[in-house]
Design a protein that fits this description.
The chain is built from 21 helices and 16 strands. It is α/β, with parallel strands linked by helices. The protein has a five-stranded antiparallel sheet, with helices on both faces. Strands 6-5-8-9 form a four-stranded parallel sheet, sandwiched between helices. A three-stranded parallel sheet has the order 7-11-10.
Length: 572
């Protein structure tokens, strides 16, 4: 079965933003394409929001939902997440219910009713539980995070199903086991949870999919009549409607219990920090209950919501719509027990130090000073990246500093292979790079300096080159100089000066026309060969490093153009 979140490889541009943004680094880079690691993923869906090319996709649930509805006419019920208020708040409730029933549903019920059952069950559990810290089980993404990345805390999760599952059990209790239930909400994690509880919830769809369903069927909920008497079944929710906002679960607690303290936290990075430091202090309250929601601000900020409304306004809509509902029916006999098992995905000191050092050395990092921790690869530190390399989740070309060095080394090697003098100069007439052939053309003294300081980066062209004035002119005007013959004593030069960045950086190409070994045809083919061998690396580096590497690519192309002109052969 296709996972709730997946990658379309053809759209992936290896920008590594998904790695940078993923709170659990559940991404593998292979052949420069990102894929989701199912065993590490908690299906928060954040990558689907930040991927700049739309390569991260949410699994379609609409096709299956329509199929189920068509096969079970009159037996379908929609469990509507309470955050519908922030998504469909501009549509009268009766109209929205009527539109959903037009899709083939026998009734629409608020998932908030299940939330009220969860609240009651949690209160009963805390009342009889021994003192300690307890974590809410309402958010499946938060629960998965604990199971995989804080496994020691799994015993502290309240052993109660989520509101969606509690609601499904409630509906089957009231309307019979033969009914079928579809869930609609802003949460991608619910798709994974529906997979695990297939006997209770047939499929979970997003609000976006629900809107698409309306459009495909030609239904406009805002145009549905409001006087049809359409209402939620079996009754309207009360405090459970507050669940989509941070602290909403706690708002439904009737009594704090003996010595209990209640707190609410949202956003996975925040949850990670809180859970990671729970053991930092030996002080413990009698009972501390933490409501945890994976999305910042709560479910109203879920990854599958459509409206870009301010989080404050969405919260206001929930508070404004909330009213005291009917008394919760006594369904205490329903089995709402859940058992959570640890599924650890990270181990402390998983790799010995010598292996980490080997991985770092493979990307040119042999000292602590080399560990820049720049996060260009997507990982917070170079050591995290090294661990990912060892685990097959990353590739060495993801490291920007390493690829910069590779690009520089390849460009330097290319300059040395070209049998002509090449010099790159900036707008201050300072040398950026130079090959040995150019140094030799300038005389024995310059060649001696070059052998001591290869490349002569930072040296002034003035005084070193007898025709530096031509470089100055090209830099000042931006007009390139093509094949100027220059006589100097018994030597005749052929000089071309081309722009890399007009008036900022140029490169000069110099030949001694009396040198019998100079053959332009051979030079062109040799340059082409080097370019073919290394262009893929240079292009990738250009994307990672911008102008630092892009100028190398531009230089190579300009050299090719300089030697691939119809009149070149007559210049020898």
């Amino acid at each position: 079965m296709l996972r709730p979140v997946y990658t379309e490889p053809e759209n992936c541009q290896d920008c590594y933003k998904c790695i940078r943004e993923c709170p659990v680094k559940a991404i593998r880079i292979e052949n420069n394409k990102a894929s989701i690691l199912a065993e590490r993923c908690v299906y928060c869906g954040h990558c689907t929001q930040v991927c700049p090319t739309g390569a991260k996709k949410i699994r379609d649930g609409l096709t299956r939902a329509k199929l189920v509805v068509s096969k079970h006419p009159g037996r379908m019920y929609l469990s509507l997440a309470p955050s519908y208020v922030s998504e469909f708040g501009d549509i009268p409730t009766a109209s929205l219910i009527g539109a959903i029933k037009r899709l083939g549903f026998a009734g629409v019920s608020e998932t908030a009713l299940g939330a009220e059952l969860v609240t009651a069950a949690t209160e009963r559990f805390l009342a009889s539980a021994p003192p300690g810290i307890y974590l809410s089980s309402a958010c499946p993404v938060a629960v998965d995070y604990i199971r995989k990345y804080a496994p020691d805390l799994v015993p502290d999760i309240t052993p109660i199903v989520s509101p969606m599952i509690a609601h499904a059990k409630m509906l089957k209790e009231l309307y019979g086991e033969q009914i079928k239930i579809i869930f609609a909400g802003p949460c991608i994690g619910k798709k994974s949870e529906a997979d695990a509880y297939g006997g209770l919830v047939e499929v979970a769809i997003t609000f976006k999919e629900l809107r698409s369903w309306f459009e495909r069927e030609g239904i406009d909920p805002s145009q549905m009549p409001t006087d049809g008497g359409e209402e939620f079944v079996p009754y309207r929710s009360g405090a459970g409607a507050m669940y989509p906002v941070e602290g909403g679960m706690l708002a439904g607690f009737r009594s704090p219990g003996r010595g209990a303290a209640h707190m609410a936290f949202s956003d996975l990075p925040t949850i990670r920090d809180i859970l990671g430091r729970l053991g930092d202090d030996n002080r413990r309250p009698d009972t501390l209950f933490l409501e945890l929601l994976a999305c910042k601000g709560g479910c109203i900020n879920g990854p599958a919501q459509l409206k870009p409304t301010s989080l404050a306004l969405k919260r206001y809509d929930i508070l404004d719509r909330y009213k005291v509902g009917n008394p919760v029916r006594d369904l205490g006999h329903l089995d709402l027990h859940a058992a959570f098992t640890a599924d650890p995905q990270e181990r402390k000191n998983a790799h010995p130090e010598y292996r980490i050092k080997e991985a770092l050395a493979a990307i040119g990092k042999t000292t602590s000073a080399d560990e820049l921790n720049c996060s260009s690869c997507g990982y917070d530190t170079c050591r995290d990246f090294a661990a990912a390399l060892l685990e097959g989740r990353a590739e060495d070309n993801m490291c920007a500093s390493y690829m910069r060095k590779v690009a520089h080394d390849k460009a330097t090697a290319l300059l040395q292979k070209i049998p002509a003098g090449v010099v790159i100069v900036n707008d201050e007439l300072k040398i950026v790079d130079m090959n040995r052939t150019f140094a030799a053309c300038m005389g024995e003294e310059t060649l001696g300096v070059y052998d001591m300081f290869p490349g002569m980066e930072g040296a002034s062209l003035k005084g070193l080159c007898p025709f530096e004035a031509l470089f100055r002119t090209v830099l000042a005007t931006g007009e390139e100089l093509r094949e100027r013959r220059i006589a100097e004593g018994d030597r005749t030069w052929l000089l071309s000066i081309y722009n890399i960045r007009p008036q900022k950086q140029v490169f000069g190409l110099l030949q001694n026309l009396h040198e019998p070994t100079v053959r332009k045809e051979w030079m062109v083919e040799k340059t082409r060969e080097v370019i073919r061998n290394h262009m893929q690396t240079v292009q990738r580096v250009a994307g990672l490093l911008g102008e630092n590497a892009a100028y190398t690519d531009a230089t190579l192309r300009s050299i090719m153009e300089a030697y691939d002109k119809p009149g070149d052969k007559g210049a020898n």
